[in-house]
Amino acid sequence: MIRPCTAEDFEDIWQIVNDGAAAYKGMIPEDRSSDPYMTRKELRHETEQGIAFWGIEEDATLLAVMGLQHVLDVTLIRHAYTRTHAQKRGFGATLLSNLREMTDRPVLIGTWADAAWAIRFYRKHGFELVSPETKNRLLREYWSIPDRQVETSVVLADGKWRALHPEQ
After folding, report:
1. How confident is the model at residue 20 (pLDDT cuts 50, 70, 90)?
2. In degrees, to the nearest 5, what angle opens at C-alpha 136 toward C-alphas 82 and 55?
3. Would you kindly state where each structural domain of the chain is located, as residue ranges?
4. Are the C-beta atoms of 139 and 132 separated by less than 8 Å?
5. What CATH number labels 2-164?
6. How far apart are alpha carbons 85 and 83 in whole angstroms?
7. d(CA 72, CA 90)
8. Which of 66, 114, 159, 162 could make an S-S bridge to 27, C-beta 3.0–4.6 Å?
9. Using an 8 Å Cβ cutoff, are 111 and 120 in contact?
10. Which pTM was predicted?
């Protein structure tokens, strides 16, 4: 079952993010990596910045989460994670599809440049990498992340965004 996450889900979201982030081990630059991957304070900050989490629940257990954030004229997909034991079961694809249906805006996704499997996942679902120059501009315009993270990340755009920006 797909549902919006509530304040009561905070601890589960935090656990899923940190458990799911284990897939990025070795792909996140050492100077950007931390344990836990995201602190409770950081997660609280993200939700205060307008990220609305949606989740997939099975047998009353939240297994995967993905955030949706409207920024200026686009929608960002943020913090997409699945519990390790529930990965490879289609939860990410299902959440991504549903969240895309919730917006009529162009959709952008940022991820770590070395996370080839994540990039393949998003490309399989119709997203394409933008140029390095465009990536730098988009990450500074739509995200609030440190310069070092901008350097080590990529941005993927959906067809709506690419249709509006064919030169990029």
Report:
1. confident
2. 20
3. 2-164
4. no
5. 3.40.630.30
6. 6
7. 30
8. 114
9. no
10. 0.93
